[in-house]
Specification:
Elements (H helix, E strand, L loop, with lengths): L2 E4 L4 H11 L4 E4 L16 H16 L3 E10 L17 H11 L9 E11 L5 E12 L15 E3 L11 H7 L1 H14 L8
Parallel strand pairs: 1-2, 1-3
Antiparallel strand pairs: 3-4, 4-5, 5-6
Helix pairs in contact: 4-5
Length: 198
């Protein structure tokens, strides 16, 4: 079985990818390897950050590496928090509080938002491929649901009445930005199986 490094320390993201892969690849995280030099996510786009991480960790680990950059883009906030989504506060609860505070005077019809995820798969020899996933919805006035992580409790998925945090893991992967990006990336990942890391 081929081995894939998922360049994350986020246990929620790692769990999602392992569920989505279903055992077709051995997925390891940065926490499973000896310490590698940290990559600064200083690019202005999701694409730039994902590719920078994937290429750097692939070179350092000598493993094919999948990296993601994802975030919440809120129309009324000019696309923010965007690439700063993970740095919008010190914890999930803090980030949600800051987001709701920024939107407190915005009526329901003006709270459109979308989650975006860019996945980049890079090999140690330098090949890289990128895939994008989007999930549209709106920001609620208060959190609902106990599943998921990040902004999931305040993001109501378009076309339904539930937040991302009210969906099961199977339901979430069917509609989420990361699930959509992953399904686009899956053929590239399966091509790694049994081929070693070169």
């Amino acid at each position: 079985m081929g081995k894939l490094l998922f360049a994350t320390t986020n246990p929620g993201k790692l769990r999602e990818l392992r569920e989505l892969m279903g055992g077709d690849l051995e997925v390891v995280s940065l926490a499973d390897l000896p310490p590698l030099p940290e990559v600064d996510e200083d690019q202005p786009t999701f694409e730039g950050n994902a590719e920078k991480k994937a290429r750097a960790y692939a070179a350092a680990s000598e493993l094919p590496t999948l990296a993601d950059d994802s975030g919440l883009c809120v129309e009324a906030l000019g696309g923010r928090p965007g690439v700063q989504s993970a740095r919008y506060g010190d914890s999930d609860a803090d980030r949600i509080r800051r987001l709701l505070k920024a939107l407190e005077d915005v009526p329901v019809e003006g709270r459109r938002a979308e989650f975006r995820c860019v996945l980049c798969l890079a090999k140690p020899i330098g090949e890289a491929v990128l895939e994008l996933g989007r999930c549209e919805g709106r920001i609620l006035f208060a959190p609902r649901g106990a599943n998921g992580f990040g902004y999931d409790p305040v993001f109501e998925v378009a076309g339904g009445s539930r937040t991302m945090a009210e969906l099961s893991s199977v339901e979430k992967s069917a509609v989420s930005h990361r699930g959509i990006a992953f399904r686009k990336m899956r053929p590239h990942l399966l091509a790694l199986g049994g081929a070693g890391h070169r």
